[in-house]
Design goal:
618 residues; alpha+beta; Beta-Lactamase; 4 domains; five-stranded antiparallel sheet; 16 helices; 17 strands; 51% helix; elongated
Length: 618
């Protein structure tokens, strides 16, 4: 893709994303404002409903209280105190008509219905809810579902006691919650209210009452509101959901469902108050925002085409020159330069590029010299440190020989023999130190060929078997946990054998009191994994961080090159090595080697000035 097309895409995306971001922000703010408005309207309607409920409840309570003090009821209570009740079969119906209540029942102190206005045939039967209604005598009105002969209805009830004689008489009266109740609500434009009675059926066809719709519309609404009604019935909590009446989103309504219960909060759900708010105004506003965004975005894309064409013509040619010069530098031509024309930003960039390449040439020369000096200094420091320890005993031994020759000629032969032993031992130590340094500096590059890691670990276990059970030390148990499905990988078997042997020796040194050595292989994605685990003394976090550093060792007579050699071998195989350990809980070295051959090498060629001394900087 050329620069001009990229520039066009950048300009177009900038315009489109900016317009989209502004449109989304405005839509989100509008949505939040409408949602807040809907919540406020729903809260206001709920407050209206609660006030109307309280007013109606006080009126019902007043009427029921008046019924209990009326002369017929007082007379009936006096008669019931003497055990006579049959003559008052029709009293509840007549009294309900006089006091304009829809429900009225008289119940004696034992819970038996004396007279019922809504279901006269209940005379003489016990009132099922008597035990829960008695404590409500004298309390405010409450919601109650009243069972009739063929159906059930929701109403507001009050309970009052006609206190005549020794036997109480209770009047349970109320009015049904119907369309007349909802007509008292002052509904804002675009808002409607529905009330559903919960008759315990699975379907939401629950005798709906709507303050603004016909019966057929209300039945259709019940079908659409089925999910919200059922969800509210199951959860018993207030819920909100959008109801889609048609394919036009402007017809949608956001309904807020409020469960209605009796006087006790744990009582079963009696009804659901549904407050619907039309989303037409919000949808229309959102459509206008989208149309404006599309118009502005289209104009912005057209402008982006013009701007990108001009900018590309202005910028392309100098950038192409810079790109060509950069490719020259990448290919090794550090003397590549770009012609500087003008004084604008691109010209400044070209001038900076020229200065950068010139500085890179100088920096390269200085860096090579600095690395060469640093390598020699590090080698000299390490050799001086390692050679200083054996040189001091050599000096003392020679001085003892000179003193013995001068002061005690007769004992010189005995001192000479003892000193010769010391001299030979320290010279041998010097040769070993020089040999280890020479060995580390001559690490060869691996010669890759198919290698079976399982066979390599079996060979190492066989090689060290005698040392695991050697006399004079506690035995070490060697456990092989090998993945038999592990395929051969490209590796240098000799170098790998040397590295794994170093890890096994390191584990044996950590288990002076015996323990378990586990050699494990695993297949993980595109690498083969080798684990060498011991149950020895373990390492601290600080030791884990420094353990692969050359010349670092925690052993008294170690050189700190063993694990550095292991890491060098693994790195030359393009693999990785890591360590997991905790003090007192053992150590695990994890080696991961690629299962496919690598073409590049991680090693660096030794510097020409160091190659004569067989030193290789890693």
């Amino acid at each position: 893709m050329n620069f001009r097309r990229k520039l066009l895409i950048v300009f177009a995306l900038t315009v489109v994303l900016s317009v989209a971001a502004v449109g989304l922000l405005i839509s989100a703010l509008a949505r939040r404002a409408f949602a807040r408005n809907e919540e406020e309207r729903s809260a206001a309607l709920m407050a209206q409903f609660q006030r109307e409920f309280d007013d109606q409840g006080r009126e019902i309570a007043r009427r029921v209280a008046a019924i209990t003090t009326s002369e017929p009821v007082v007379h009936m209570a006096a008669e019931l105190d003497h055990g006579e009740s049959a003559s008052y079969f029709e009293l509840a119906k007549l009294t309900a008509q006089d006091y304009e209540v829809d429900f009225l029942e008289f119940v004696d102190g034992s819970g038996t219905i004396v007279s019922s206005a809504q279901w006269p045939a209940k005379f003489g039967y016990p009132e099922p809810a008597f035990a829960s209604l008695v404590p409500l005598a004298g309390k405010p009105a409450f919601l109650k579902q009243e069972n009739l002969q063929d159906t059930s209805e929701l109403g507001m009830f009050a309970v009052r006691n006609a206190k005549v004689g020794d036997h109480p008489l209770y009047a349970i009266g109320g009015r049904r919650l119907d369309n007349n109740f909802l007509t008292f609500l002052d509904l804002p434009s675009g808002t409607r209210v529905m009330l559903y009675q919960n008759l315990g059926e699975a379907s939401p066809q629950l005798s709906p009452i709507d303050s603004s719709s016909t019966e057929s519309q209300t039945r259709h609404a019940a079908d659409k509101l089925a999910l919200l009604i059922n969800a509210t019935r199951e959860s018993g909590r207030e819920m909100t959901a959008a109801v889609h009446w048609s394919s036009d989103a402007a017809d949608d309504e956001m309904f807020h469902a409020i469960p209605l219960r009796g006087p006790v909060k744990t009582q079963a759900l009696l009804g659901i108050l549904l407050i619907g708010n039309s989303r037409r105004s919000y949808v229309e506003l959102e459509r206008r925002i989208q149309a404006s965004a599309l118009l502005v975005g289209g104009g912005g894309i057209l402008l982006a085409i013009l701007m990108s064409s001009w900018a590309a013509a202005r910028v392309t040619r100098p950038v192409e020159k810079l790109a060509h010069a950069a490719r020259e530098v990448a290919s090794g031509n550090w003397n590549a330069r770009v012609a500087v024309e003008g004084a604008d930003e691109l010209s400044q960039l070209a001038d900076s590029f020229n200065r950068m390449t010139a500085e890179l040439v100088n920096q390269k020369d200085r860096l090579v010299q600095a690395e060469r000096v640093a390598a020699w200094r590090e080698l000299a420091r390490r050799l001086a440190h390692e050679l200083k320890n054996p040189l001091f005993p050599l000096q003392l031994t020679v001085e003892n020989l000179l003193r013995a020759r001068q002061n005690s000629p007769d004992q010189f032969d005995e001192v000479f023999r003892e000193s010769s032993v010391t001299l030979l031992a320290e010279i041998s130590n010097l040769k070993a130190i020089i040999g280890r340094f020479s060995e580390f500096s001559k690490m060869p590059q691996p010669q890759l060929h198919p290698t079976d890691l399982n066979e390599a670990l079996r060979g190492i276990a066989q090689l060290f078997r005698a040392q695991f059970q050697s006399p004079g030390r506690k035995p070490i148990e060697c456990v092989l946990d090998l993945d038999e499905n592990l395929a051969a990988i490209p590796a240098d078997s000799e170098l790998l054998h040397r590295a794994l042997s170093n890890l096994v020796l390191n584990a044996m040194d950590a288990m002076q009191d015996g323990g378990t050595l586990t050699l494990r292989t695993r297949q993980k994605d595109d690498v083969a994994q080798i684990e060498v685990s011991d149950t020895g003394s373990g390492l601290t976090p600080e030791e884990c961080e420094r353990i692969f550093t050359p010349y670092y060792t925690s052993k008294q007579h170690g050189t700190g090159l063993g694990l550095a050699i292991v890491q060098s071998v693994v790195s030359d195989h393009h693999g990785t090595i890591s360590v997991r350990s905790q003090p007192g809980r053992g150590t695990t070295f994890v080696v991961e080697l690629p299962r496919s051959p690598q073409t590049s090498s991680t090693g660096t060629e030794p510097d020409a000035s160091l190659r004569d001394e067989d030193v290789k900087t890693r």
